[in-house]
Each structure stands twice: as C-alpha cells, then as structure tokens.
Amino acid sequence: MLYECSSGLLGNGHHLHGISTISFQAWLSQSKRSKDYALPNSSWSQDMMDLYSRFLEMCKDGTWKRIPSYSDTADHVPGKACVHLESLKLANEKERKGTRFFPRNLDTEGVGFEYAMFLNPSEKRMVCLFQPGPYLEGHRGFAHGGSTATIIDSTVGGCAIFVAGRVMTANLSINYRNPIPLGSVVLVDSKVDQIEGRKVFLSCHVRSIDGQTLHAEATALFIQLNSTKSLQQQVSSQ
Ligand SMILES: CCCCCCCC/C=C\CCCCCCCC(=O)SCCNC(=O)CCNC(=O)[C@H](O)C(C)(C)COP(=O)(O)OP(=O)(O)OC[C@H]1O[C@@H](n2cnc3c(N)ncnc32)[C@H](O)[C@@H]1OP(=O)(O)O
C-alpha cells in the first residue's frame, strides 16, 4: 500500500526544507503487514521485559510511542521516502531479494540484536532497550564495539528520521566508557540537539538500566536527503 505524506509529526503540517513529514499513525499502518521484531520473545531477560513494560505503560497517555521494527529496510523510512523506496522495492524485487536491515539479520531469537525503540515526539527523543546476544561478542563476554555503534546509529537514526524523513549518517563519534556485558540490558537514549537546514545534530548516551554505569556516549550528524530524488537516483547520480 502506498500513501502520501499528510499531517506533520512536529505539529500540524510541519515542514522541514519543504518536506512534509507523515503522521505517526499513517506510518504505522503502512508497515503493519510486515513482521514486527520489536515485540517480546522468549530470549528477552526479565530486565528487558520489565523495562519494556515500563515503557509500554508510558505509552498509554501518548507521551511515548512504541516503534515497530522490520527486517526490510524500506519499512523503516516513513513518509515520501517510503513511496520512493516502495517503488524501488517493487521494481527491483529480484535484486533486493535476500537483503535485510542489518540489526535484524539473524533468524534465531536472542543471539544478535534484541531491541525495542520508543519515541518521545515532544522531546524529539528516541530510547532503545538493547540486549546484545552472544553473536555480538568482541572481547570475551562483552559486546563488540561495532555492535554498540550499530545500535547507537540506528537509535539516533530513528530519531533523525522522525524529524527529517530520509536521512543518512554523515558523522558518528563514540566514546566507549565501560564494556557492555553480553546478555545485559542497556538503555540507548538519544535526542535531537539542533537542526540547521539539512543538518540534524543529535547526542546519545548508553547506560545500564540502574543508570549507574555509563557505557558509551556519542554525537551524530545526519543529513537530510533531497526529497525530490529517489534513493536510487541519488546513488546513481554520484
Ligand atoms: C513516523 C516516524 C517514526 C520514525 C521512526 C523510525 C524508526 C526507524 C528505526 C530505526 C531506523 C534505522 C536508521 C538507520 C540508520 C542507519 C544509517 C546509516 O547507516 S547511513 C550509512 C552511512 N552513511 C553513509 O554512507 C553516508 C555517506 N555520505 C553521503 O552519502 C553524503 O556525504 C551525505 C548524503 C551524508 C551528504 O552529502 P550531500 O551531497 O547530500 O550534502 P553535502 O553538501 O555534502 O553536506 C550538507 C551539509 O552537511 C555538511 N556535512 C556533510 N558531511 C559532514 C560531515 N561528515 N561532518 C560535518 N559536516 C558535514 C556539509 O559541510 C554541508 O554543510 P553546509 O550546508 O555547507 O553548511
């Protein structure tokens, strides 16, 4: 199902550089036919379940929104970008066969990235509950720094998508402060700090759920892509 952008996420009819963002509901209904991986499964620890329930509770008054998660990359980008990507997807179905959104690339539950994101629209903030599995090992018993970078990029990326639609990471700077034990649950907390034209600046902290350990802190710059060109056109014109 294709759809057009309508009401804005940052208030009615919000426009950022001429690009109207879509309503959260429209995006949710666009993607609901795909399997949602951000729902609890048997690999989730009690800590993960407890935190997830706490955030679900905070969704009840609309302050927070649970963000679904899919294995198809095209489903992650809302708005007009989705129309472009949907067409691209239909046109190139053959070539696209077998591609997956990187953090959802494993079939077995619990071995890789287990995560669920929640968006706070008024604070332009995205929080990700992350439980790294055994296939993300770097040093013995700890998550690989690249997997931490991936979950940070995806969380700040989700936040940037919320404010600016189709974006790409231009810069991601991470300070790793304390290793993340495999199987533990951490909170990846990101927010938009500033928007300057097409540039979206964000910051992010990764903390243990008791808040006592700072695992990593990051800053990121995302660039809003030209809405009049499809992703395919942008790639082929470079
Ligand atoms: C309903 C809403 C709900 C939403 C929720 C959704 C939930 C979804 C959940 C989860 C989402 C998952 C999210 C996934 C995230 C993953 C993202 C990635 O991994 S992206 C792959 C890695 N990145 C690349 O490969 C880029 C490679 N670079 C490029 O393609 C270009 O450099 C690009 C597009 C970044 C910029 O190129 P140009 O030609 O469009 O723009 P130019 O003119 O170069 O830059 C624009 C401005 O930005 C500055 N700029 C560009 N790069 C910079 C840099 N690295 N550092 C500082 N400034 C930079 C420039 O100086 C310029 O600034 P001046 O306008 O002159 O002030």
In total, the number of strands is 9
| Number of separate domains | 1
Sheet with the most strands, sense and barrel status: 7 strands, antiparallel
Principal-axis shape equals globular
> What is the percent of helical residues?
25-40%
Which sequence of strands runs across the widest sheet?
3-4-5-7-8-9-6
Q: Total number of helical segments?
A: 6
**Rg on CA atoms, Å:** 17 Å
| Terminal-residue CA separation | 30 Å
Q: By helix and strand content, what is the structural category?
A: alpha+beta
Report the uncertain regions: 1-22, 80-84, 228-235
Looking at the structure, the CATH topology is Thiol Ester Dehydrase, Chain A
Please provide the ordered H/E string of secondary-structure elements. Answer: EEHHEHHEEHEEEEH
What would the average pLDDT be, to the nearest integer? 83
Enzyme class: hydrolase
Domain Thioesterase: 141-213
Pfam family, one: 4HBT
Keywords: Apoptosis, Cell membrane, Cell projection, Cytoplasm, Fatty acid metabolism, Hydrolase, Lipid metabolism, Membrane, Mitochondrion, Mitochondrion inner membrane, Transit peptide
Can you walk through the features of this model?
This protein has helices at 24-31, 46-59, 80-91, 93-96, 145-164, 231-236; strands at residues 15-16, 19-20, 65-67, 113-120, 125-132, 167-176, 186-196, 199-208, 214-224. With 238 residues, it is an alpha+beta fold. It has a single domain (36-71, 102-236), classed as Roll (Thiol Ester Dehydrase, Chain A). The chain starts with 14 loop residues before the first strand and ends with a helix. The structure holds ligand 3VV. Ligand 3VV binds at residues 9, 24, 27, 67, 76, 78, 117, 153-154, 157-158, 161-162, 168-171, 197-199, 221, 223.
